[in-house]
Amino acid sequence: MSNNRSGSFLGGLLLGAAAGTIAGILMAPRTGRETRQILKKSADALPEMAEDLSTTVQLQADRLSESALRNWDNTLVRLRDAIAAGMEASQRQNQALEESDSLAQSQPQPPARDTLL
After folding, report:
1. Would you say the pTM of this structure is higher than 0.85?
2. What are the residues whose beta carbons fall under 8 Å from the beta carbon of 25, sequence distance 6 or more?
3. How far is it, in rounded angstroms, from Cα 28 to Cα 41?
4. Cβ contacts of residue 38 below 8 Å, gap of 6+?
5. Which pLDDT score is estimated for 1?
6. What is the pLDDT of residues 9-23, one digit of tens each?
7. CA angle 10, 49, 41 (to 5 degrees)
8. Segment-wise mean pLDDT, segments of 10 residues, the chain, 117 residues
9. For residue 22, which of 35, 34, 9 has the smallest C-alpha distance?
10. How many CB atoms lie within 10 A of CB 33?
């Protein structure tokens, strides 16, 4: 269903573009020769415009890549710091548990009471 709708949309888009182009040429205030000269100049300028666009896109991609790399590096630094802090907290907690266990073992235990009377 979706494929049929997208095909219809694209067909309508192309048909509309063609009709608009034809109407624009027929209604143009210039003669056919002038229109063809303008179209030729535009077509001649296309490679240069495409090159400019390509250069601009490449520059933007490089900037985004550098920005992503910096963000990744910052994320790695924060992750390493978080892991180190977690390890330190775990070691402190482990030491505290060992100390409380050794303290509990060093205190005399009350005699066990027999619950059966």
Report:
1. no
2. 35
3. 17
4. 30
5. 47
6. 888 888 998 898 888
7. 90
8. 71 88 79 81 86 90 90 94 96 91 72 61
9. 35
10. 8
Inter-residue contact 76 to 84 (CB < 8 Å): no
User: Is there a contact between 35 and 28 (Cβ–Cβ < 8 Å)?
Assistant: yes
Please tell me the distance from the alpha carbon of residue 36 to that of residue 33, in angstroms, as a whole number: 5
CA 9 – CA 15 distance, rounded (Å): 10
Calpha distance 104→94 (Å, rounded): 15
Tokens of 41: 């100049």
Length of the chain: 117
Per-position DSSP letters for 36-69, written without gaps between them = HHHHHHHHHHHHHHHHHHHHHHHHHHHHHHHHHH
What is the residue-wise DSSP string for 12-39? HHHHHHHHHHHHHHHH-SS-HHHHHHHH
